[in-house]
Amino acid sequence: MTLLRKIAFGYALVLFAAASLNYLPFPSIIDAEGRAFGVFALDLFDDSLHVASGLWALIAALTSHRAARIFLLWFGAAYLADGALGLITGSGFLDFGIFVYGWFEYPSFLIKLAANIPHLALGGFAVFVAWAFDRP
Fold it and tell me: 112-116: long-range contacts at Cβ-Cβ below 8 A with a sequence spacing of 24 or more?
């Protein structure tokens, strides 16, 4: 199994974990207002996005090096763009937040940054490894 396939498999695990956050019985993860880690609220759209992305990652990892690279490039670009849009507008497009909520004001830029770091980091790393480690 190539490095990109292993990384895609890791993404599947991370995305499935993200989808399960709302359903874990740990009050330290979801606060009284329904926000994960006190920063962002995950809803059905978010959970569906994470499960679909996780399935895509898993299928790509199990299929081939080329499928894993395509996943990492496309997933990475989409999540990176979503995180960037979230920094600008407070809402992303992948979970339809920009269409449902429009521009959203966070109490501070640091909270807005914390809410978008997961997509920026996942997307940026995926694009980077797809280009930097493209070795079958």
Answer: 112/86, 112/87, 113/87, 114/39, 114/40, 115/39, 115/40, 115/86, 116/83, 116/84, 116/86, 116/87, 116/92
Q: Which amino acid type is present at position 39?
A: V
Residues in the chain: 136
Domain boundaries along the sequence of the chain: 3-132
What single letter denotes the amino acid at residue 35?
R
Q: pTM score, two decimals?
A: 0.83
Whether 119 and 84 have beta carbons less than 8 Å apart is answered as no
Q: Model confidence over 76-108: pLDDT tens digits?
A: 999 999 999 988 898 888 877 788 778 878 778
pLDDT tens column, 5-32: 999 999 999 999 988 877 766 666 666 6
